[in-house]
Amino acid sequence: MIFGVIGVGSMGRNHVRVLTEIKKVEDVVIYDVNRNQAEEIAEKYDARIANSVGELLKEVDAVCICSPTKFHFQHASECLEAGKHILVEKPISSSYDEGKKLLELLKSHRDLVFGVGHIERFNPIVYELADLELDVAYLSIKRHNPASLRITDSTVVEDLMIHDIDIVFNVIFSGESEYKISAAGNRNIVHALIKFGGKIASLSASKISSKKIRTIYLENEEITVEGDFMTQELYIYRKPSVYQSVNEKYLQENVIEKVLINKVEPLKVELKTFIDAIDGEAEFPVTAKQAVENLRICEIIRREIT
Fold it and tell me: Which InterPro entries would you find in this protein's record (predicted)?
């Protein structure tokens, strides 16, 4: 299988690196408007360079779209017209309306595999959380980043918080259809509160933090769960069956479990799953419909902060 990668910036170069490590991938062809950058990546990972998107599409079976968000719809449309399987980086497009147009195009290409790179869906702690099947009363996710020049055409909502919107709506509260959203912040710092009846999800995201934070916290009346997306560690706290009393003071000794997790690189899992989906061996879990819905939620939150 020959893969193409459109855009080899910070995320695209990681796609190239991982693809060259996967046995089912015979060759990787790359295109970037920055020729010097393309040459650097091609030399480093033994990839071939195409002079245009059109030239790339003539040589490949599948494409990873890692170009800036504003080009996602254009590049996805070109790839669909060429009959190529597509994995597009999140967000799927630059707007909800553009995403809906892409869904219409996909109706004519049901034979192609189309996936969206919401990478945290492939983090092993998310798999573990899904397996717990918790009735979550309260959830908090914090995703804070030091300042970066990498993203220039997105707010912190589409850049960072969208990962957690995907987890909330497609993993933790996937069966909930009624909700209310409120938010406060600006382009670089946002706090969103999502209420599913009596259940609450609190999401915070920042582009200006001095410390990189990727944490998740869940609780109900029986247990509390804490996780770290970066270290891929997950802890479960259970209440004791008996509370001790010493000198009229209560001592609570919780039972703490560290979940055994096989740590992996989520991008490698994502790309292997995409390849398996092309081979008919698996379903790619992040659909275009889910990704477009994630964008709709992003736009609701963005309206709240403007």
Answer: Gfo/Idh/MocA-like_OxRdtase_N, Gfo/Idh/MocA_Oxidoreductases, NAD(P)-bd_dom_sf
Judged against a pLDDT cut of 90, whether residue 150 lies above it is answered with no
Give pLDDT tens digits for 80-98.
999 999 999 999 999 999 9
Is it true that 2-112 and 121-264+295-305 share their CATH fold?
Answer: no
pLDDT for 239: 81
- Return the closest-CA partner of residue 38 out of 71, 5, 78: 5
Q: How far is CA 173 from the centre of its chain?
A: 16
Q: Which CATH architecture has domain 121-264+295-305?
A: 2-Layer Sandwich (3.30)
Residue 234: partners with Cβ closer than 8 Å, 6 or more residues away: 125, 128, 129, 225, 226, 227, 228, 258, 259, 261
- Annotated domain spans of the chain: 2-112, 121-264+295-305
Q: What is the largest CA-CA distance in the chain?
A: 79
Rounded CA separation 22/25 (Å): 6
Sign of the alpha-carbon dihedral angle for 256, 261, 263, 268: negative
pLDDT tens track for 230-257: 999 999 999 876 555 555 555 566 788 9
Q: What angle do CA 136, 141, 142 make, to 5 degrees?
A: 165
Q: Give mean pLDDT, residues 117-129.
A: 97
Name the fold adopted by 2-112: Rossmann fold (3.40.50)
Distance CA 127, CA 181 (A): 26
**Phi then psi for 88, rounded to 5 degrees?**
-105, 135
Q: Name every residue whose Cβ is closer than 8 Å to that of residue 115 and which is 6 or more positions away in sequence.
A: 86, 87, 88, 273, 274, 277, 284, 286, 287
User: Crossing angle for the helix pair 96-106 and 72-81, nearest 10 degrees?
Assistant: 10
The type of residue at 15 is H
Within 10 angstroms of residue 240's Cβ, the number of other Cβ atoms is: 11
Distance CA 294, CA 46 (A): 35
- Cβ burial, residue 65 (10 Å; 0-12/13-18/19+): buried
